[in-house]
Amino acid sequence: MKSILKGSRIAASVLAVAFGAAAVSSQAVSSTGVTDLSNVPQRIIVQYSDTQQRDWPAKAKAYGARGGVSLAHVRGMALRDRQVYRLNQRMPAAQLNKFMAALEADPNVVSVQEDALMQPQFVPNDTYYNVQWHYFEATGGINLEAAWDKQTGTGATVAVLDTGYVYHSDLDANMLPGYDFIDDTFVSNDGDGRDADASDPGDAVSFNECSFLSPARDSSWHGTHVAGTIAAVTDNNKGVSGVAFDAKVVPVRVLGKCGGYLSDIADGIVWASGGSVAGVPVNSNPAQVINMSLGGSGACDSTYQAAIDTAVANGATVVVSAGNSDADASGFRPASCNNVISVAATERFGARAYYSNYGSIVDVSAPGGDVQFDGTHGVASTLNDGTTSPGNEAYVYYQGTSMSAPHVSGAAALMYATDSGLTPAQVESVLKSTARPLPGACSGGCGAGIIDASAAIDAVGGGGTPTNQAPTAGFSFSASDLFVTFTDASSDSDGSIVSYDWDFGDGGSSSDQNPTYSYASAGTYSVTLTVTDDDGATDSDTQSVTVTDGSGGPTSDGFTETNLSFGRDEWQYFTIEVPAGANSLDVSTSGGSGNVELYVRFGAAPDSATYDCKDGGGGNNESCTISNPAAGTWHIGVEARKRGASGVQLDAYWSSN
């Protein structure tokens, strides 16, 4: 995660007039390990094997005695098998990991994890910006003006899990009552714990306040900026427009000074969707869409996933930012969780923004801006000019995946306003199927493309001219020595395919539907078929093709990694390219000390719930064998358990006859 700068500030109806900047630290957070926010209370989440009520203060006292530390019970969670405890004095990371491992030895305990702090997802922003290109420009926008001719969001409700809401006259008419889920008074910065006041008092911090040498920063008013993108009042002769400007927003405050605790965020997710949280009044306006422009490093954990699954079961679509570390989003949460729409950021020219995370877990992209290119290339929305506490309302341009996610949440609200019976799975499917390819570059994977709000509304029955559905490219092949016969398997659901463009990976090409090609030498080649339909839409399919020269060719290949070391519950990821024709993929770990589990999955990074093969029988000697593996990229995940592991060897090899 990177730090952020607040961007260009403008007057109510003027372009970039004044500029203000304030750095905000976004500390990296491990998947279940320990943060370095030395001045913020340490807390842990203990998951029990049942939901039986116990004497929790006595439990805290007993747990504390084991680790030689004073421990206090904070509260239960909406996930009723989990309890939150606070350490009354900080432990070094190694000692805390040892303490949590000792608690896990209790037969009634399923897991123990740090109650980690999550952070807002936005990045450096230090130049001027123009107007809201991200709505209407053909290259970088989301086709919103055409959508507004059919739908404006009436009847839809979006929950924004963020820093809360500071009053703004260009947004207030669309705000509903919310809730403040921050129970720690240092983080909340409002003098009390949980209550029905979701207003944002400011999240400014002084030098050294969050952690050793952490920088000072002004208040971000991040939640108000996100909410404005979703539902700022529109057509009122002032300020900015919102994507779904007749929708309503429920502010759910989960982020404060130095970030927000995972346990608070999880409860906020459940409550926002209409679920029950002990001691908190039921949300009278359950959200159809939940926006989370926040996150931290580490693969999705069980607490996040359980809360998200609860929200989806309650009918809420969960939209999350992919993160701003220019890295594979599979290493960040909640972007790597299942049942979410993970959103990457694009800039004004339709390319992946330089800071945006990427990868196979990204579902779609949306404008996030890039003010480092030019001051007119950010995302404008509602804000406040107070540096610590609320001051005057303002309009400011930010950039980041925090800004891209609310574009998608707003589009989802327009879809729900069109058809309130949609399921979260249908919303995700339509947003992906109606997205358009990025007109600019995207290295690493940007999902289905940039969302098209108008096309999404049409697809769920919003009227207008039906949007052309892009074709689906596909092919099969058979190889005999250096000769390969390719068979087209493409389809087009609402028209016909009019052209075929084959790239055989060695400089050769063909426009035939079913070509036969002869390679000059043995090897593995990346073959791409691009098809175009009768309305000009395209799609591509790329596969690895291995040919031999008749003398046997390559029969085995792979890699060995030695002396791997892992922290407690740490994941490490690897990939191996398997060619067509391989009849076995063998992956194994061995040696060293500790305890690791091995996961193998085709096409995407595995996690503890999604894999093609898993071995975790204890110790470090684990193995997975895949017979007749599919050609392409296989992903390997190695997770250390309990106290970590060291000196581990990983072997991954494919073989063919």
TrEMBL record:
Domain PKD: 467-548
Keywords from the named record: Hydrolase, Protease, Secreted, Serine protease, Signal, Zymogen
Region annotation Disordered: where it falls in the sequence: 533-559
CDD domains noted in UniProt: Peptidases_S8_13 (cd07496), PKD (cd00146)
Signal peptide: 1-30
Group of enzyme by EC: hydrolase
Gene Ontology BP terms: proteolysis
Annotated compartments: Secreted
Active site as annotated: 162, 222, 402
InterPro entries the UniProt entry points to: Ig-like_fold (IPR013783), Peptidase_C_arc/bac (IPR007280), Peptidase_S8/S53_dom (IPR000209), Peptidase_S8/S53_dom_sf (IPR036852), Peptidase_S8_His-AS (IPR022398), Peptidase_S8_Ser-AS (IPR023828), Peptidase_S8_subtilisin-like (IPR050131), Peptidase_S8_subtilisin-rel (IPR015500)
Cofactor field: Ca(2+)
EC numbers for this chain: 3.4.21.-
Superkingdom as given in the UniProt entry: Bacteria
Main location: secreted
Gene Ontology terms, MF aspect: serine-type endopeptidase activity
Pfam families: Peptidase_S8, PKD_4, PPC
Gene3D superfamilies with a match to the protein in the record: 2.60.120.380, Immunoglobulins, Peptidase S8/S53 domain
GO CC, any one term: extracellular region
Biased composition (Low complexity): 539-549
Family: Belongs to the peptidase S8 family.
Protein name (Swiss-Prot/TrEMBL): Extracellular basic protease
Source organism per UniProt: Microbulbifer aggregans
Chain's gene name: bprV_2
